[in-house]
Amino acid sequence: MGAVPSGLARENAGEAEPAVTRPASRVRELVSERSAYAKTFELSDGRREVEVSTGPVHYREASGRWREIDTTVEPTDVPGFGFGAVNGGFSALFGDRSDRLMRVELGQ
User: Fold this and answer.
1) Are the C-beta atoms of 43 and 50 separated by less than 8 Å?
2) Phi, psi values for residue 42, rounded to 5°
3) Of 78, 103, 74, whose CA–CA distance to 87 is shortest?
4) Domain boundaries in the chain?
5) 12-53 pLDDT, tens digit each
6) 18, 36 in Cβ contact below 8 A?
7) Which has the closest alpha carbon to 92: 102, 101, 100, 82?
8) Are 24 and 47 in contact (CB under 8 A)?
């Protein structure tokens, strides 16, 4: 290695390397910014992060509020339907008889 030619001194010569910073983390979801396909998060450094899905992740209640789609199958108290998913803008109920295996209702 040769010497740096006259007049071409390094601009940051003698300065310490910048400290490595940790990536920002999610602080909270900004629920008011939800849509059917996206959720927005406030980050620890003040920026925002938007998570977008190719399929819906929220449904709109009659009140206009966006709710998480939950497809967890759980026991139900609906007569003739022992299990179902009822918290996602629809209900899918699974029957306990062969002549009534499933019932799907939209807008739940």
Assistant:
1) no
2) -85, 135
3) 74
4) 25-62, 70-108
5) 556 667 667 788 999 999 999 999 999 999 999 999 999 999
6) no
7) 102
8) yes
Q: How far apart (Å, rounded) are the C-alpha atoms in residues 78 and 91?
A: 11
Q: From CA 99, how far away is CA 92, in angstroms rounded?
A: 16
Tokens at 99, concatenated: 């002549």
Could you tell me the two tokens for 40?
A: 């927005």
Strand arrangement, sheet containing 100-106: 74-75, 81-85, 90-97, 100-106
Q: Can you read off the two tokens belonging to residue 1?
A: 């290695």
What is the rounded distance in angstroms from the CA atom of residue 53 to the CA atom of residue 34? 12
Nearest of 37, 60, 55, 53 to residue 106 by alpha carbon = 60
Please give the model's pTM, rounded to 2 decimal places: 0.63
CA atoms of 62 and 40, how far apart (whole Å) = 22
Q: For residue 43, give the nearest of 53, 30, 32 by alpha carbon.
A: 30
